[in-house]
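Re: that chain you flagged

S.,

Sorry for the slow reply, it's been a week of failed gels. I finally had a moment to sit down with the sequence you sent. For the record, here it is as I used it:
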Amino acid sequence: MPNLTFILPHWLYWGGLGLFPIAAMVIVRRQQRSGLGAGISVATAYLFWLTGGFVGIHRLYLRNWWGVIYIPLFMAILFMNVEGRAAREVFSRTHRDLQVAEFELDRAKKEQQEGKLGAVEQAATVQASMEKARAENVEADQRFGAWSTRAGWIAAVIALMLLGDAILLPSLTKRCIAREGGLRPLSNMIDPEAVLEKVSHKAPGTAIHTHITNEVDQVNGFFGEYIGYWSIIAVFVYYYEVLARYVFNSPTNWAHESMFLMFGMQYLLAGGYAFREDAHVRVDVLYVLLSDRNKVRLDLLTAVFFFLFNGVLLVTGYVFVQSAIEVGEVSMTEWGIQYWAVKIALPLGAVLILLQGCVRVFKNITYLRTKEI
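Prediction finished late last night. Pasting the structure tokens below so you have them in one place:
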């Protein structure tokens, strides 16, 4: 099998983080406006064809059981790659042994010319070991080439099958839609937000809404939804990493780093949204025993520590970003991604959670001043 040498460009990484959530949000909004929910579609079928077609997922998605033909072919490629990798390891080992033997043979010949005792026997022994290493090296190279050729032929068969399916997918999709009855209306689907609303236990003051608080809630709601789509990017990246590592024997030097940096930024930027939804972890052994009014009073009291922490995060985050920009800081890995762009999430996340914290304090004060309570 050929090697994959693709290295994710920095512009594509940052462009994907910036544009992919927008595209996903547009698609979801359009689907919501259409009043139709999930169902069989040509676009989804082609997506499965592109990402998992080598194991027939696109046909299984369309309830076409001919897709199982792909599975044994792909398993055969995996087996042949394992055998080829073992042969390549033997080739590397014997190549090293051959180089060592050649060096020792040269030294033994020099000692033989100098008339040292036992040099002739030493040269003969080294010559025999060198010939053995050369024979094993040639055999391992041939075995590696044989396994690679077989895997290549099976990969070519899969590629031809995928090419044919690319032409047949529209008709296969129409047949599946005819059997399944098309798309399901949204009214028949479960509303995840309604489920979360039923099971959530938010603080008492969060039920108060004004124009300003609603604006801040919408800002953090947008950021929460926006960065939530980053998780989908991780699925594609790790999918590529697994495929490159175990099928093409070409592990990347950027997949893991790009994703743990992305999730770090996601963690920081989601702070305000999590605060809005009252989803942050709290030790509530005593908190749950209090009345709603006392809960609000306790929240106002502990808000002092919140603002202290958030102020430190904002100031230090700004200092980190400024330093990273001044020195042009990049990661110490081969990928060399820009760290200043990553560290911007520190002060930005602090600003978002600070805004939500101010809103929470305002809501709690309003709650206590409400005459109806």
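What I noticed first: The radius of gyration is 31 Å.

Talk soon,
D.
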